[in-house]
Design brief:
By secondary structure, the chain is an alpha+beta fold. The chain folds into 2 domains: 76 residues, Winged helix-like DNA-binding domain superfamily/Winged helix DNA-binding domain (Arc Repressor Mutant, subunit A, Orthogonal Bundle); 149 residues, 2-Layer Sandwich (Endonuclease, Chain A). 52% of the residues lie in helices and 19% in strands. The chain contains 11 helices and 9 strands. Strands 3-9-8-7-4-5-6 form a 7-stranded mixed β-sheet, with helices on both faces. α1 crosses α2 and α2 packs across α3. The longest helix has 28 residues. The model has no long low-confidence stretch (mean pLDDT 86). InterPro entries: TrmB-like (IPR051797), Tscrpt_reg_TrmB_C (IPR021586), Tscrpt_reg_TrmB_N (IPR002831), WH-like_DNA-bd_sf (IPR036388), WH_DNA-bd_sf (IPR036390). Pfam families: Regulator_TrmB, TrmB. This is TrmB family transcriptional regulator.
C-alpha cells in the first residue's frame, strides 16, 4: 500500500508532513518509543520528540508509561476511527457555520445589483437565446428578423406547446405562427435602423438584446429590472405603433407622405 496518498490525506486534515508520518508509524506499531518511531516513520530522531509533543497537545498521540518502574515512555495514536469522526464533526460544524455566516453576508449585499454580461459571436449569441427560450415559464416577448425566427422556430414551438404565452414582432415579413405575431412597417431607413436586431424578454425576469449584423455580433444579457422594463416597453410600443400604421396607413400617409418618410425622417 502506498504511504504518500495517506500522508496527503492526513495533511488535508491539518497534519504536517512529520505528524502524518509519525501517526501512520504509530498505527502500524504501538506503543512505540522515539527511536522506533524515527525508524518506522523516517522522521529524524531530533524532530520526533518535538513533533510528538505537539501531537500530544492536539490529543492525537498519547504517552504510555511502561517498564518495571514505569519509567519507559512510549506513545500510542488516537484510534483512526475516532480521528476521522472528530475530523468529520469539525468539518460539518464548519460547513454549517459558514452556511449561516455567508448567507448573512450575502443578504447584506447590494440587492440592486444583478447580472449583466456580454456574449460574443453569432453562434454563441443564438445558443444563449435558444437556451433561455427553452427555460421560459410563462411569457416571451420578442422582436426579430425572420432569419432568426426560422432558427428559433423549434424551441419557440416547444414553449408554445407547454403553455408559454408568446408575442413576436417580425421586422421583414408576415409569418404564419400559432402565437400572436405582428409585422413591422417596412422602409429602407427602418430596415437599416433595425438591421440584425433581436430583442427578447422572458418571464419579466431576463432580457437579451442581440445584434447579429454588427462586424462583431454580440448579445447583452441582463436580469436588471431597468433593462427588463425598458426592453419590454420598447417591444410593446413598437407593436402599438405598427398596429396603428396597419390600421390607419392611408390616413398616416396623407399626413406624412409615402412610406411615412415625413415621420420617420423627422429625427
Amino acid at each position: 500500500m502506498k504511504i504518500q496518498p495517506m500522508i496527503d490525506g492526513l495533511k488535508e486534515l491539518g497534519f504536517t508532513e512529520y505528524e502524518a508520518r509519525i501517526y501512520l508509524a504509530l498505527l502500524r506499531s504501538h506503543p512505540s518509543n522515539g527511536n522506533t518511531i524515527a525508524t518506522v516513520s523516517g522522521v529524524p530522531t531530533p524532530k520526533v520528540y518535538e513533533t510528538v509533543r505537539k501531537m500530544q497537545e492536539r490529543e492525537v498521540v498519547f504517552a504510555v508509561a511502561g517498564g518495571d518502574k514505569g519509567t519507559q515512555i512510549r506513545y500510542s495514536p488516537l484510534p483512526y476511527d475516532e480521528l476521522l469522526a472528530r475530523s468529520k464533526k469539525a468539518f460539518l460544524g464548519n460547513v454549517n457555520f459558514l452556511q449561516e455566516a455567508l448567507t448573512d453576508i450575502a443578504e447584506m449585499s447590494d440587492t440592486n445589483w444583478t447580472e449583466l454580461f456580454v456574449i460574443h459571436g453569432y453562434a454563441a449569441g443564438m445558443e444563449a437565446i435558444r437556451s433561455a427560450l427553452a427555460e421560459a415559464k410563462s411569457e416571451i416577448f420578442m422582436s426579430l428578423w425572420s432569419q432568426e425566427l426560422d432558427a428559433l422556430q423549434e424551441v419557440l414551438m416547444e414553449a408554445h406547446q407547454r403553455g408559454v404565452s408568446i408575442v413576436t414582432l417580425i421586422f421583414d415579413k408576415i409569418v404564419q405562427v400559432p402565437w400572436r405575431s405582428f409585422t413591422h412597417h417596412h422602409s429602407d431607413l427602418i430596415g437599416l435602423r433595425h438591421a440584425g436586431e433581436l430583442n427578447l424578454v422572458l418571464d419579466k425576469e431576463k432580457t437579451i438584446i442581440f445584434q447579429a449584423m454588427d462586424e462583431r455580433p454580440h448579445a447583452v444579457v441582463s436580469r436588471h429590472p431597468v433593462t427588463i422594463k425598458t426592453t419590454l416597453n420598447y417591444i410593446r410600443h413598437d407593436i402599438y405603433v405598427n398596429r396603428i400604421v396597419e390600421e390607419f396607413g392611408e390616413v398616416m400617409e396623407q399626413r406624412y407622405g409615402a412610406g411615412l418618410d415625413g415621420l420617420i425622417n423627422d429625427f
